[in-house]
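Consider a protein example.
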Amino acid sequence: MAPSPLGDLMVKTTIDIDDELWKKFSIKVIEDYGGRKKNDVIEGLANAFVNTPKKTIEEALTDWLERESKRQSKK
C-alpha cells in the first residue's frame, strides 16, 4: 500500500469486469458525476456496501460523494 496525497494508505487493485458493462458504467459516471470520477464512485460504492447496509446503494453513494466534495472543497 502507498500513502495517498491525503495521508491515508491506499491500495491499487485490478478487477475483471465485462467490457460492455465497464463502458456503460463509465458513461453513466460521466453523465451523473462528471469526468474522471470512476475511482470516487467505486470507492463510494465499496464504502456504502461495507458501512451502510440499511440505505440503498444509491443513497449511500450520494451521501459519500457529497461528503467527499465538501472535504475536498475545504482544502
In short: The two ends are 24 Å apart (CA to CA).
